[in-house]
Amino acid sequence: MNTPDNKPEEKGFFEKVINSIESLWDDTKDKAEDLKEVTEEKIDAIKEKVTAQKPTVTKKIAATTAKAKTAAADVKAKATQTVKKATDKAKSTTAGAKAKATQTVKKATDKAKTITAEAKTKATATEKKVVAKAKAAAPKATAKR
Fold first, then answer.
1. Cα separation of 145 and 141, whole Å?
2. CB neighbour list of residue 19: distance below 8 Å, 6 or more residues apart
């Protein structure tokens, strides 16, 4: 028969290790739950801030969009004006060049007509001289024979 001992039983080495691991596990789970709660609270706080700032951001976006549209309209108007000026300048330059070219062509045509008329006059005069010399020489040639 066994007689009960009045001494408490001493735990073995492995039982001590198991108890230590269980204790660490319980502490870790508690810390994880605490961290989870703190994180949830922070997330809720951030959501509240974002919700509070959302209308402000929306207003800023609307204002910025309006400014961008106004700036784009101004740039478009300036670009249109610049293109119009450049087109007008090109048209006037082209018109001036056409007028000068027409005038130059007219002068060249007039000069060519004048030269042609002078050449015809000289050719006619020369032809008349040649004909006159030929006529004058023809009776002499017939007389000598």
1. 7
2. 11
DSSP 87-106: HHHHHHHHHHHHHHHHHHHH
The string of pLDDT tens digits covering residues 48-64 is 888 877 777 788 888 89
pLDDT in tens, 89-140: 888 888 888 888 899 999 999 999 999 988 889 888 888 888 888 777 766 6
d(CA 70, CA 73): 5
The C-alpha atoms of residue 81 and residue 83 are separated, in whole angstroms, by 5
- Return d(Cα 109, Cα 101) in angstroms, integer: 12
106's tokens: 């007219």
Compute the C-alpha angle 14/20/26, nearest 5°.
135
Question: How many whole angstroms separate alpha carbon 47 and alpha carbon 68?
Answer: 30
CA distance 139 to 103: 54
CA distance 132 to 114: 26
Token duo for residue 91: 């048209």
User: What's the predicted TM-score (pTM) here?
Assistant: 0.37
Taking the C-alpha atoms of residue 17 and residue 20, their distance in angstroms, rounded to an integer, is 5
